[in-house]
Amino acid sequence: MKVYKYGGSSVSDIEKIQNISKHLKEVSKNEKIIVVVSAMGKTTNNLIEKANMITTNPNVRELDRLMSIGEIETISLLSIALNNIGVKAISLTADQISIKTTGEHTKSRIKSIDKNILEKFLEENDVLVVAGFQGINDKNEMTTLGRGGSDTTAVALASVFSVDCHIYTDVDGIYTIDPRVYENAKKIDVISYDEMMELAYLGAGVMEARAVELGYKYLVDIYVEKSLSDVKGTLITSKEKIMEEKEITGISINNNTLMVTIDNIATYAKNLEPIFSMASSLGISIDIISHNDVVSDNGSIAFIVPRTDLNLVNTLFSNLNLKNSNVILNEKISKVSLVGIGMVNRVGIMSKIFKILADNNLSFHQISSSELSISIVVEESNAKTLSKLLAKEFNL
Amino acid sequence: MKVYKYGGSSVSDIEKIQNISKHLKEVSKNEKIIVVVSAMGKTTNNLIEKANMITTNPNVRELDRLMSIGEIETISLLSIALNNIGVKAISLTADQISIKTTGEHTKSRIKSIDKNILEKFLEENDVLVVAGFQGINDKNEMTTLGRGGSDTTAVALASVFSVDCHIYTDVDGIYTIDPRVYENAKKIDVISYDEMMELAYLGAGVMEARAVELGYKYLVDIYVEKSLSDVKGTLITSKEKIMEEKEITGISINNNTLMVTIDNIATYAKNLEPIFSMASSLGISIDIISHNDVVSDNGSIAFIVPRTDLNLVNTLFSNLNLKNSNVILNEKISKVSLVGIGMVNRVGIMSKIFKILADNNLSFHQISSSELSISIVVEESNAKTLSKLLAKEFNL
């Protein structure tokens, strides 16, 4: 048995759905398949747009119910296509196979899936077509799983049966760096869960961090591959299975970055605490914080937030009313990150980065490092140049 | 408490949904409302079209799941609009309030609805927004209720609480005859269940016969009214409540009519039986059957079927292989029907009909009568003329 997942661009029209059904017919001759699908193309965005015509702040219970129908459309159509060519297939929504979630609307996590029900359906069918991105809470309400939710559904189903999970997408694997940025980018054959989570968290678009995290927890081998292609993709697995370790695994560029600088502010902890506690209560996720070394009455502090939180940041500062300080928002910022296991333990990487910055006259705003990554915050206009130079330097 | 139902044309865009939400806000100040909605505009047709791009004969379980999502879209959006203007409202799908059906796909009937669950939701909310047209079967699969299914959902909900049901549509009531055919058509203030069922069965488009039948069974007063209008509509109720009885209540024109004539056929019952039993097994619903009086080896027989069953009729005759007979299909046929309680008991109506046909040189193919109606099968080109003459004669 295997679990397959097809994303929105792989099922964006009826012809693509029919092509997938033919492929599934072939593979289902040898083994049972659970296939998870996303909504067709831009369907979910279109539904959200309708809600936003009413209000930009819709009731989240109802928004979840609305957003869930795109996947139901796809499972019905794919099941119609499969049955039409003689495959025993059945569509299943979250309530039908009891995909239970933690319950928060628009960002639930999967708590459990009923294996017995799935086994019963697998006895009677060759292909189960499951709606991704959705689950039900304890009140039997529809909840959605947030960005990349269908990947999470697929990995969760694979974990139930301890089988491999194949994520089919419109690219043929995970690359060391976005090939649109650096044409010599190399495809990664195998990558550890840790590195992939870090890459995903730092903005590499192909997989969402939560799905990888779930794979990590239940040790599900995740293959990222191109739909209907024989090209070998990328395997995400535990680091114990990876023989050869590379210094640097990949580079991500994250443009969803906004730099907030507050000048002329008292930088004692008690003065800064209200800013970050209010930001937290507004749901703003704060990344790298830096302030000049000397704590003083008129110091300066800077931090990074997602650019998509701009409205929340404006709310934050109108609530705080920092009368004597200057707040500067810089939206033309990018975060370039190098990811690799044990990178920080190897000498010379940071110095190589500084040499590249200096030799090419690239100024930076912030640099931070963690066990798995080094991130450099630069002007957005310099992000691609820097990424290419790093990719060349580290042979990615 | 009341039950409201808004049809597809009343919720065809976001603005209309918002207007309905404002109206519901006003009325929900005085009483609790259960509102049933259809899919937005042509949504269901568009979904069926997608399925038909795959096959004209889709798996009915999957087709039902597909067709059900239009209503889920509407309930979510209407609930978002209601909550946005401060109304305590909640969207509910068939599984959430246990609308159980008989189970056949695409044409289920409602078996039961869980009153306790509804009461619980009514305690916590002022408006319940229920998806029409859908129910779940014993296997927890989505099933749909066939044409006019949302009306049936509304009447069933009204019957659970023994309250009135208001069907809001784009016309302001039931007319004695389609106003597009006869501009002096009169609106009917009150009509009995029997007459309305007969009118609906004979093709008057506003209400489906099954919803009226359910109202009849549980004595639900059904008001057919125009959305967001103060104009008084039509009340459908039991005949005991109707004081003044009219000779003729209304006229319907049904163009979904195909006349099949078989010439040169043995018209003994044993020869005809295979035709009608095979038609029945193909699901062709046969209306008025007529044959010339003398049963003979080379007689002739004619009957009426829905024009939409043309493909099935062709299948019927290719299966039957009536080698010596001529089969003539006439698609340019209409059935004009007069409806009224106890009509057949009053003398003179049939003779008036014949006088009109004769005076105006209108030929007819068949005439049939039942307790509640007289139907005249004529050329489609004559249907409107005949209807107008009848409307004038019977002061409709």
Summarize the structure.
Chain A is α/β, with parallel strands linked by helices and 396 residues long. Chain A has a domain of 169 residues: Acetylglutamate kinase-like (Carbamate kinase, 3-Layer(aba) Sandwich), CATH 3.40.1160.10.
Characteristic terms for this protein:
globular, 20 strands, alpha/beta, Carbamate kinase, homodimer, 12 helices, 396 residues, eight-stranded mixed sheet
CATH architecture of the domain at 2-170 in chain A: 3-Layer(aba) Sandwich
- The helicity of chain A comes to 25-40%
Q: Given the C-alpha coordinates, what overall shape of chain A results?
A: globular
Largest sheet of chain A: 8 strands, mixed
CATH superfamily membership of the domain at 2-170 in chain A: Acetylglutamate kinase-like
Beta strands of chain A, count: 20
Radius of gyration of chain A equals 23 Å
Report the uncertain regions of chain A.
none
Which CATH first-tier class of the domain at 2-170 in chain A would you pick? Alpha Beta
**Assembly category:** homodimer
Query: How much beta of chain A, percentage-wise?
Result: 15-25%
